[in-house]
Amino acid sequence: MTRKFSVRPTLTIRGRKFRGIRGWAGKPFHPPLTDVPIGLYLLAGVLDVASFVGGAGHTWPREFWHAGTYAFVGGVAVSVLAAVSGFWDAWKSSEAGTQARRTINVHATIMVIVTLIAVTDLAWRLSTFSTHDATPFAVMILSVITAVLVAFGATFGGTLVFDYGFNVETAGDHPVWHKSEQDVMHHQAAADPAE
User: Fold this and answer.
1) I need a labelling partner for 194 at 20 to 30 A (CA). Which of 36, 57, 136, 162 fits?
2) pLDDT tens digits, residue range 150-177?
C-alpha cells in the first residue's frame, strides 16, 4: 500500500535553526504574516465598495462598513509584524547591488506605502465609525487604493519566493521528490534515493 500523506516533517521545527525575528530555517515568519493583511485589505475593499453602493437607506451597508473597519484593524496590526520580519529578512538574507535586493526594495516600498495608507484609512474610519451608515466615499477610495497596491506589492513578494527562491531552504534535487515510503525530516541526513 502506498502512503498518501506526509504531515510530521511540515509541522516540526526540530533540527531547524532559530533565526529570531525571521523565524526558523525553512519556516520563516514573514510569508505567512503577509497573508493576513493582504486578505483583510482585499476583503475590506470589497466590503467598502458594497457598503458605499448600498448607501445609507439599508441596514446591511452599515454592517459592511463596520466589518471593513474590523478588517482594517486586523490588517494594520499584522502589517506591523510582517514589516518587522520582512525588513529583518531583507537585511540578513540579501546583498546590496543584487537583483534580489532591488526587487526587495520595490516590494518593501510598496508595502510601506500600503501600510501608511491603511493607517490613514483606519484613523479616518475610527473617527467616523459611529456617525456613518455606509462607507464614506473618501474612505472607500482609500480602501480600494490599499487593496490594489497590496495586491501589486504582493506580486513582488511572490517573485522573490517563486522566481528567486528567497528564503527557500532547499532547491534542486532533494529526496522529497524521489519515490519513497519514508518521510525525510529536516534534522535527518537525506537518504540515498537509490536505496
Assistant:
1) 162
2) 999 999 999 888 888 777 665 456 666 6
Q: Rounded to whole angstroms, how far apart are CA atoms 78 and 38?
A: 10
Tell me phi and psi for residue 23, to 5 degrees: 105, -150
- How far is Cα 174 from Cα 147, in angstroms, rounded to an integer? 37
Residues 6+ apart with CB under 8 A from 192: none
Cα–Cα distances (Å) from 134 to 19, 64, 83, in that order, read 45, 8, 31
Q: How far is the CA of 81 from the CAs of 5, 33, 163, in angstroms?
A: 32, 7, 24
Residues in CB range of 109: below 8 A, 6 or more apart:
none
Whether the full predicted model's pTM is greater than 0.85, yes or no, is no
Q: Give the model confidence (pLDDT) of 17-71 as tens digits.
A: 888 788 887 788 888 899 999 999 999 999 999 999 998 788 899 999 999 999 9
Rg, the chain, Cα only: 21
Q: Could you tell me the three cell numbers for 116?
A: 501608511
